[in-house]
Amino acid sequence: MEIAKSEESFLVKPEEKKTFAFRETLTLVTFYLGPFLFGIPAEKVVEINKDLDITPVPLAENYILGIMNLRGEILTVIDLTKKLELKAQVQPKLNLIIKAEEETPVSFVIEKIGDILEVPLSKLEPPPERVEGLKKEYIDRVYQLPDRLLILLKIEKIFEN
Amino acid sequence: MEEDILQDFLVEAKEGISKLEEEFVELEKDKENLEIIKSLFRTMHSLKGAAGFFGFKTLEAIAHFSEDILSKLRDRLIEPEPEIVDLLLKAVDNIKYVVNYLEKNKTEPLEDRLLDFVVELSNFNERLKKRLEKKEPSIKEEISEVFEEAPKKEASKEEVSKEEVSKEEVPKEDLTKEVLEPKRVEPESFKEEVLEPKKEKPVKEASLTPQVILTETHIKVDVKLLDTLMNLAGELVLARNRVVQLASRIADPELVRSVQNLSLVTTELQETIMKTRMQPIGVVFNKFPRIVRDLSRALNKKVNLHLEGTDTELDRSLIEAIKDPLTHLIRNAIDHGIEPWEERVLLGKSPEGNLVLRAFHEGGQVVIEVEDDGKGIDIEKIRKKAIEKGFMSFEEAQTASEKELLSLIFKPGFSTAENVTQVSGRGVGMDVVKTNIEKLGGSIDINTILGKGTTIRIKIPLTLAIIPALIVTSGEGRYAIPQVSLRELVRIDPERDILKLGDTEFYRLRGEIIPVLRLSRILQGNGKLEEKNLVILTTGEKFIGLLVDQIFASEEIVVKPLGKWFKNIPIYSGATIMGDGKLALILDVVGLSTYTGFRLEEFEKTYETTVTKKTSSEETQFIILFKIGEEILSLPLALVSRLDKIKASDLSIVGGKEVIIYQNKVIPIVRLENYLPIQGNPPLEEYHALFFAERGKTCAFLCTQIVDTLETTLDVEEGLYNIPGILGHRIINDRTVLFIDIYKIIEMYDPEWFIVKRKLEEEKRVYKLLLAEDSPFFRNLVSNYLRSAGYEVETAENGKVALEKLNSDLEIDLLITDIEMPEMDGIELVKVLRENPKFIELPIIVLTSLTGEDIRRKVMEAGANAYEVKLSRERVLAIIENLLSSRGKYKKAV
Q: Do the beta carbons of residue A3 and residue A96 sit within 8 Å?
């Protein structure tokens, strides 16, 4: 799936949970940061865009890249690699804009967007004891894809100050 | 005002009507929906209440009977059959007609038709009641009966005699016949279809009730919606800006024209949207005539209220917010300001007090003034109270300035009202007023003249969301500084103009010492360019200087909040979107000053520990204490242009003079021990150097150690050291400190130093100046530099002595006077002199350690020719020269 090829932002339609005959599924927007594949529930994603005009805010926490202008709203831009203390070098290329409770949305800068996946809830597993190069406290659950592990992030935890 | 309420009523009534119409239609679709009926009932009920309040009888009656019917529907006593709904809709139509008539004529229509309708409604209602009382099993039947009868009785006169039809029911048959034609057949069909929901609606067009379309002139809009609109308009502006840029690149004349058009429309759209939130201040002002009237009656005073600038517009939210503070100020003015009329007559004032409430725009802000011609505020009383209530010590109160004392009024728990009245004087309020105004980003000021009146001036921004701000840069970043915090801009050479004391930097602004912050340093970045622009900011309490890279123009910015992630950074108050779509952070001046607070505190600590207590800002100066060998010497910090350490190895002797190469300049070294009876520096590897610069000339004094800086009065004792170069001594922290006369010493070092510019000297006689100054320190310092500039100088310790000297035959050419002096102060001296024809043309310069517009105004009002800060020697000399030469010309001309 290719998203945000053009300059314009690409709206992700929030897909609702679909109920199949005997299983519930969760739609996830996935993205890459270094070697990791992360997922965020699609209903939390506002949009993905390529506008990387970020204004730095001196004195802010190191994981805060700055602020950006999204159609008149001022968003906080977070560098997930720093927030999650990822041991990975990442080139931020896209903004993944996420709804934040009672706040203006927040943008995560990401390297590459992945597929939009629909995964059965029953197949989601608790985080393993250890994930190499990643803090466990930010992992909500994981989903085993044929070739790799998809990590569902705990958004609330990331938004905690 | 009546008009206003009527307007409100009409707007509300119209809303009610459209709501009723919608809901009746809803009700027909969903008969079981009790919520709709309840809502209908409420709407009708409030309409009735409002109509009753205004005494609109017809309207009230229609609403009353409709409400009655609705209450029965609500209580499920009857069902919302189309016939009932029909009648109610007819009622709504009639209400609409009356409301429309009211809007045009301000009075209810007197039409028989309406009366008849009221009667019809009433009878219908009566019959419903009776039927219900009979408690017949089938309500539906009963209703049908009612309907059976209703048209009959209305339709023909023959049936008038029928039992249930009373006399008032006599209809205007010619008018109603047409309407009732179709209805007459209804009862039959109705009976048959009683259990079926009736689909066929009664033919509305047949109704004779005039179908009026109400013209809406005002509607209510959610403020949130307006905010969103404003946001979008802002975005449109940004998009437009980009298009404009692109169009200029393509340079197609067609495109340029249409972009210009787009541009104009966008601007207009944005302005219009902003206007939707604006309201004239009259909305608030117009409430005051009543309050003033009631209050002046209660207090037995006569007050004329004048409203000025009622059409001054400001943001809705601000209008709301200033109401209470203004009410409070007006109460105060009437209660404490304006005297009872008997007293006014005795004072030779008009019996009616005048209270002016004035609003106007000034520099992107709204100024509101509450001005009375009452008794003014007695500063002495405040002084007394300040001591009584423990706000100030006796000493502090004695030396406190008028401004300082007046500011106490805004302190919680401070009230000067002698008697606590019902209206005011409980010592609460003014502090709340101030807090509220400040919350809006505004400021408040008091100006008072005892016996003449008081003016309270409030300044608030036009809107909360849009503020004028100065855009500055630091490195790559742009920052906005709200204009309210801005005092002035100074272009400086940091190398030369910034004083350094440890880590703290200062700037001398007309003799005042202001701590300087470097924006690049605060932001922990590195300013790319040399920071040369000093922005003088005020927190309301103190001044700070902020060094920035570049200064751009002032702009109107839209304040946007920052996320929670930035809450713990006090130096930002928000962010804004600039014309190019990029963002700029808005700096919080109070936050800036606290952010650097630890340094200031440290600085303040140094003078708290000293024996000399800081008295008032009036005559205090920052002085620097330094050691040469074991001796402690001192001089005003403002005279030192720079402090630095220099290596002994860098000193050299060139042409018989000791010099140092400092920042690519050869700077002569002055060793104080050569001119003063002191030991001198021991040989050191490193010395501290005090740089002194004037007119592009610089020299440096060597000292062993910088001891301290402190803010203190310059009271020195004279006599003990009667040596040129020493102004006096004082004990500070148990040590004798010598205050040196830097000008004298430099003159001793190089007699030519100051002489260069005095060319008048040769051609003219020597002018005689009189210097009135109570502080020996300043008296000696100033008279020394005047003498070395070639003037003959007489001195006086106070205004009285000065007056005596002037009146003797000393033939004084020019007077220089201090303000704060015992016996007779400077302002009084000037006033006295100006009243005497002999001295009307005497050039007078007032020297002060105070700065500020208030003082300048007072000085100039008194009649002085010039006003200068004591320590700016160069400027003082320039002014003297200027005044003397223009006077010479004047004399020649005469």
A: no
Residue of B501, B328, B516 whose CA lies nearest to B409: B328
pLDDT digits (tens, 9 = 90+) for B418-472: 444 444 443 446 877 887 787 676 788 888 888 888 999 998 877 666 677 899 9
Write the CATH number of the domain with boundaries B760-893: 3.40.50.2300
Q: CB distance B585–A53 less than 8 Å?
A: no
Res B195 pLDDT > 70:
no
The dihedral built from the CA positions of residue B116, B117, B123 and B127, taken in this order, carries a sign that is positive
Domain B611-749 has CATH 3.40.30.10: no
d(CA B612, CA B607): 8
Mean pLDDT of chain B: 76
Residues shown for chain B: 894
Residues of B marked active site are found at 45, 67, 332
Strand, helix or coil for residue B418: coil
Where in chain B are the domains? 2-206, 223-276, 280-377+416-461, 466-604, 611-749, 760-893
Mutate which: A54, A69, A80, A102, vs B, most B CBs within 10 A: A69
pLDDT of residue B854: 67
Right CATH for B223-276 from 3.30.450, 1.10.287, 1.10.760, 1.20.120:
1.10.287
Residues of chain B with C-beta less than 8 angstroms from the C-beta of A100: 563
Among candidate residues A80, A112, A67, the one with its CA nearest the CA of residue A93: A112
Please check whether the two domains, B2-206 and B466-604, share a CATH topology: no
Among residues B574, B570, B571, the alpha carbon closest in space to that of B562 is found at B574
B134 touches B127 (CB < 8 A): no
Measured N-to-C along each axis, helices B139-155 and B173-192 cross at an angle, to the nearest 10 degrees, of: 150
For the stretch B215-254, pLDDT in tens is 667 777 887 788 788 778 777 877 777 787 788 788 788 8
Would you list the DSSP string of B614-675?
P--SSSEEEEEEEEETTEEEEEEGGG--EEEEEEGGGEEEETTEEEEEETTEEEEEE-GGGT
Q: How far is B524 from chain A (nearest CA, A)?
A: 7
Q: What is the mean pLDDT of each run of 10 residues along chain A (161 residues)?
A: 42 47 78 89 89 86 90 86 81 86 83 88 85 82 89 87 65
